[in-house]
Design goal:
single chain, alpha+beta, 20 strands
């Protein structure tokens, strides 16, 4: 009788691994929603070479001259321009010992694949987020570093939608097809705090109070005019990049921390201000178009002199999610929240078909002279780009929650 082993069931195990990976990889695709593949080319063609050039052709000037009976018309000249998108690559991997699997009582196999899928999704989504949030067409009440949570005019409200509707129509930004078959609907990608400020502002607040209680009690505000509100905690937040808090905390980390750390030490004693500010930010302040993906925000709870012994973070155990180096900045300044207005072709994307839009699982592979190590990873080839500034608008604001 044949004995079933992991060797002759390798295909089944791999299929299950890939299923776990894809379940996580399909999870949160946010800015990818406003991206389309390179037009006019197959992905096989587009991914070749060091960059993909996308051509633009100018329009013609309106005719304003009557046709002459004695002279021919003067032909117009068309002008062309190009923009490019450069393929990038991303990949990460895990490796563990055979002994770990022997001694482990938890379902590490499936959990590893889920973590890989989540990692791939977030890594590739960061490419789309960077393309969507680093453009020069940005609207805000004042400079980013001066956006103040305590100033109502610096927050998001329903009043911005009519203005931006007019701008997007004026600039002929392509939209999603609406129920009437017209391409004049757009997405507005935002953080839940921005959604709150909009829901409790102006006409929306009045309608929610007196006509449609679902807006306030059911959080059912999903559309304003032609804009679909896409609300997600993954929307870009520039942590601590706004105005300084009235009681300003600006110190640094004293000693490096690992992921899942539940305590940390600061260079200065700021424990007296532990309750000041809704959330604090650890990481380099994002003052321009450079993002720092390992920045994270946390809520401090308990501190004695320079030791913070309790805080609420984004990590799986309530601690830090990422590692942080000694000397990195810690601030309680107001954060800045982005709302990205765009349509289905506001971004362009490309990817290698042989690897796939959601990357490709590599492994599991057994390694070592004694086959005592196992590794598994993912890889991705592709990128996102904004090729023109007139297809995507970013609005930046503070939030009333931090006032």
């Amino acid at each position: 009788m044949a004995i079933q082993t992991t060797s002759n069931l390798a295909n089944s195990i791999r299929a299950q691994y890939e299923s776990d990976y894809l379940t996580a990889a399909y999870g949160q695709r946010l800015y990818d929603q406003i991206a389309i593949p390179i037009p006019g080319l197959s992905m096989e063609e587009a991914i070749r070479g060091s960059s993909v050039v996308v051509p633009f052709l100018s329009g013609m000037a309106p005719g304003v001259t009557a046709i002459s009976q004695t002279a021919d018309v003067t032909p117009q000249q068309l002008y062309d321009a190009t923009a490019s998108i450069t393929p990038a690559s991303r990949g990460e991997a895990l490796q563990w010992s055979e002994n770990l699997d022997i001694q482990a009582y938890t379902n590490y196999g499936a959990e590893r694949m889920k973590k890989l899928g989540e990692n791939m999704m977030e890594s590739v989504e960061l490419l789309a987020q960077a393309a969507g949030c680093q453009g020069t067409w940005v609207e805000r009440a004042v400079a980013r570093a001066s956006l103040d949570a305590g100033t109502a005019a610096h927050r998001a409200s329903d009043s911005i939608f009519r203005k931006y509707h007019g701008l997007m129509l004026s600039l002929k930004i392509p939209g999603f097809i609406n129920a009437s078959g017209e391409a004049n609907a757009w997405a507005a990608i935002m953080h839940p705090f921005s959604h709150h400020d909009i829901a409790e502002s102006g006409n929306v607040d009045a309608i929610g109070t007196y006509i449609d209680e679902g807006i306030h009690l059911g959080f059912e505000l999903g559309k304003i005019g032609p804009f679909r509100l896409v609300v997600s905690p993954y929307a870009k937040v520039f942590g601590g990049a706004g105005a300084d808090n009235a009681t300003n905390v600006a110190t640094t980390l004293s000693g490096a921390t690992d992921p899942l750390a539940t305590s940390f030490v600061t260079a200065a004693d700021v424990s007296a201000n532990v309750a000041v500010g809704l959330m604090w930010t650890i990481g380099t302040e994002e003052t321009g178009s450079t993002f720092y993906p390992d920045n994270e925000r946390f809520k401090p709870l308990t501190a004695t002199t320079t030791t913070f012994s309790a805080f609420v973070g984004e990590g799986e155990n309530g601690g830090f999610r990422f590692a942080h180096a000694n000397g990195v900045a810690i601030r309680n300044a107001d954060s800045v929240y982005s709302i990205v207005f765009g349509g289905p072709s506001s971004l362009l994307k490309l990817y290698a078909p042989e690897v796939g839009e959601y990357g490709k699982v590599v492994g599991p592979k057994v390694q070592g002279l004694l086959e005592q190590f196992t590794s598994v990873g993912w890889k991705y080839y592709g990128n996102y780009a904004r090729l023109t500034e007139n297809r995507l608008l970013r609005f930046e604001s503070s939030t009333s929650y931090e006032a």
